[in-house]
Design brief:
Number of helices of chain B: 15
CATH topology of the largest domain in chain B: Rossmann fold
Largest sheet of chain A: 7 strands, mixed
Strand order of the largest sheet of chain B: 2-1-7-8-9
Oligomer: heterodimer
Shape of chain A: globular
Strand order of the largest sheet of chain A: 8-10-7-11-9-12-13
Order of helices and strands of chain B: HEHEHHEHEHEHEHEHHEHEHEEHHH
Distance between the termini of chain A: 30 Å
Shape of chain B: globular
CATH superfamily of the largest domain in chain B: HypD, alpha/beta domain 2
Distance between the termini of chain B: 33 Å
Number of helices of chain A: 9
Order of helices and strands of chain A: HHEEEHEHEEEHHEHEHEHEEE
CATH class of the largest domain in chain A: Alpha Beta
Strand content of chain B: 15-25%
Low-confidence stretches of chain B: none
Radius of gyration of chain B: 20 Å
CATH architecture of the largest domain in chain B: 3-Layer(aba) Sandwich
Structural class of chain B: alpha/beta
Low-confidence stretches of chain A: none
């Protein structure tokens, strides 16, 4: 087969079949995909969560991951924080003419690896090829579905005054890894994307605290924006302790240099959990035992004051409003 | 690497705040620099000060003080066919009379965001057939990097590179503000980064001619509180002078090498400052020896008559006459997503700082 993607790879004809066989089919062995019909036929039961996402990150490969791993983790995490057990994914690739087939294979490999770790099946997919210059290398669109366990009801609208706000680990790693890579910041060698599937962590949280009100992954807009979204949805206030938010020193230093606030930088392997105060310690302990929750911390609490607004308590004991991100810090981060 | 950790030490900061609260003077202080405004709000430093100590924001934001006509000229320059205009990101969203640079870009102008003049030089090297112009907005801190790029372009024969110099010098505008007599202040927190280049010497006229205390400060909470404490100390004994609370970066004489570089490439000319008007000897103009790298000499920049946005009070904010929250547009018609004036655009703009880091009461 050719080393570069040609327009004919998107023709639907022979070359398309070759591409699918070489790059995709062998990497996703499951009974649903193996039928190679126009749609995967799956059994469903009870309440389902259904999500979709598109990935346009640049560069395609970055420290700690690539667009393939990101696509799987991002989709899995949207399901997981909705209280679902992620089961099936679809992936559609929009590929620019001339894209190296070897790079495509690497990316599909990491899709397979991430899907394996998360225990989800890629059961359907699509490839399209567009002319050179009409896409930047590769875009991926996904959809994901999962089933929701009985008795679980997590939503941004469920948060109540008194709840504890728990963050699963350090903030800003993904955004700063991309930024550092893009800007060629040589000193930032130890910043890696935190891109990871969080469905095991969310399952553990729900196991010890089925009353968990809300979980959300603070991606674009960062922790500050996610907190504001939920404060608005639940019509509650929040008091966040700046000193309690875990930030890697290298991420903090790079943020300082570029005039950015880690609270607004994207994460791809972190979640915020809102749980009743009396369950906070048990949830935290469970998270600490998990590989993706080792740095988890209680960063604040939900209040009935100033509904819809998030207040940050600074290290000096003073306080200020933490607003939602406005504008675009960094385009094409995921 | 933990940047300036000791200057962020909360115990130390709170101890200084306590000392400030024990002082017996009342004072109106101005932080000249927009980065100080941002830090003061971000750390809630006003909440630590006693009632009698007021802090006003000054004009120290290079994007904000860029005159409306100069914004229009930058847009017009970007619209000249073939030109690649390189700019720091903050300038993209500043509303000109007719368009922002961002809108000009959406309509086809080639406007690129860079993080340094060296990025702009690289763009010039990789596009030898096209004129590449760096939009030189900044104070004494940025001016040496602009000068370096011009010297480098000359020595390496990068002939398609030029600079539209809107760079400005701070002490003259301080003098213009004080001479105007519109604002009454007792002390100034002088800019830290600017002073690293020019030293503390250029502020000496302020205590001498106006009886106003001056302290050069860094940007961490401890730096700023230390500066406030020193200013109040000067006022207590009624001996205003220029002191440095940022000794790790600033000396009396400043960075001589940078000053020489500035003198080599630039000469001073009058410049227009938003809200202040024309201030003599405050603009960095490219010397005749480097005329080939002066965008104003290379291109005919034509723009229509400039008008400030209706209702925008950035000028009054920049002079310290009103605080951002007193502007009727603040937080309503004018927000960071859709700024009416430049002070809501820049990270160093007072309005953007008040909006992003304001206290619970909106102050």
């Amino acid at each position: 087969m050719e080393n570069k993607i040609l327009m004919a790879h998107g023709s639907g004809g022979k070359l398309t079949h070759e591409l699918i066989n070489r790059c995709f089919a062998g990497r996703f062995k499951n009974q649903w995909l193996a039928r190679l019909d126009d749609a995967a036929v799956i059994d469903s039961c009870g309440r389902m969560a259904f999500t979709t996402d598109s990935y346009v990150v640049t560069p395609l490969i970055f420290p700690g991951g690539d667009i393939g791993k990101l696509a799987v983790c991002g989709t899995v995490n949207d399901l997981a924080v909705s209280g679902a057990v992620p089961q099936f994914l679809s992936l559609a690739f929009i590929i620019e003419e001339g894209f190296p087939v070897a790079d495509l294979e690497k990316i599909v490999d990491s899709v397979a690896m991430a899907a394996g770790e998360a225990g989800v099946h890629v059961v359907t997919g699509d490839t399209k090829v567009v002319q050179r210059g009409k896409a930047d290398g590769l875009f991926i669109n996904t959809a994901g579905i999962g089933h929701i366990l009985d008795g679980i009801d997590v939503s941004g609208a469920n948060v109540k005054p008194g709840d504890a706000v728990i963050l699963s680990g350090t903030v800003g790693d993904h955004g700063m890894a991309i930024m550092a890579q893009r800007e060629g910041l040589r000193f930032s060698g130890d910043i890696f994307s935190d891109c990871a599937p969080l469905n095991e962590l969310t399952a553990d949280i729900l196991k010890v605290c089925s009353e968990t009100r809300c979980m959300r992954d603070p991606t674009r807009g960062g922790v500050a924006t996610t907190l504001n979204e939920i404060a608005g949805q639940s019509k509650v206030g929040m008091l966040i302790d700046d000193g309690a938010v875990p930030v890697r020193p290298s991420v903090r230093a790079t943020c300082e240099l570029l005039g950015l606030d880690p609270l607004y930088i994207a994460n791809e392997g972190k979640l915020l959990a809102f749980v009743p105060a009396e369950k906070a310690d048990a949830v935290l302990e469970t998270m600490h035992r998990h590989r993706y929750g080792g740095d988890a911390a209680i960063i604040g609490r939900v209040t009935d004051e100033h509904p819809g607004r998030v207040v940050l308590r600074t290290r000096l004991g003073t306080s200020r409003i933490l607003v939602m991100l406005s504008g675009d810090i960094l385009p094409r981060i995921c | 690497m933990q940047p300036a950790a000791e200057f962020r030490d909360s115990d130390l900061a709170l101890a200084i705040a306590e000392r400030i609260r024990r002082r017996v003077v009342t004072a109106r202080l101005m932080e000249f620099c927009g980065s100080h405004t941002a830090a003061i709000l971000k750390y809630g430093i006003r909440q630590l000060l006693p009632q009698g100590v007021e802090m006003l924001s000054g004009p120290g934001c290079p994007v904000c003080v860029t005159d409306q006509a100069d914004i229009d000229r930058a847009v017009a320059l970007a619209q000249i066919p073939g030109i690649i205009l390189c700019t720091f990101g903050d300038m993209l969203k500043v509303p000109g009379t007719y368009s922002t640079l961002q809108e000009a870009r959406a309509e086809g102008a080639d406007v690129r965001t860079v993080y340094s003049t060296l990025d702009a030089l690289e763009i010039a090297v990789s596009n030898p057939e096209r004129p590449v112009v760096f939009l030189g907005v900044g104070f004494e801190t940025t001016a040496p990097t602009i000068a370096t790029s011009i010297v480098q372009a000359k020595s390496e024969g990068i002939k398609n590179y030029s600079v539209f110099s809107l760079a400005k010098m701070c002490p003259p505008v301080m003098e213009a503000l004080l001479a105007g007599g519109e604002i009454r202040i007792d002390g100034i927190i002088c800019p830290g980064h600017v002073s690293a280049v020019i030293g503390s010497k250029p502020y000496e006229f302020i205590p001498r001619d106006y009886g106003i205390a001056c302290v050069v400060a860094g940007f961490e909470p401890v730096d700023i509180l230390q500066a406030v404490d020193m200013l109040l100390g000067q006022l207590e004994i009624e001996k205003p002078q220029v002191e440095i609370a940022y000794g790790r970066s600033v000396s009396h004489e400043g960075n001589i090498r940078a000053q020489e570089l500035l003198a080599e490439v630039f000469e001073m000319r009058p410049a227009r400052w938003r809200g202040v008007g024309e201030v003599s000897n405050s603009g960095y103009a490219i010397r005749a020896d480097y005329a080939g790298f002066d965008a104003e000499k290379r291109f005919e920049i034509k723009s229509g008559p400039a008008r400030e946005p209706a209702g925008c009070r950035c000028g009054d904010v920049l002079r310290g006459v009103i605080t951002p929250v007193s502007c009727p547009l603040f937080g309503k018609a004018c927000v960071p997503e859709r700024p009416v004036g430049p002070c809501m655009v820049s990270g160093e703009g007072a309005c953007a700082s008040y909006y992003s880091f304001g206290g619970v009461d909106g102050k």
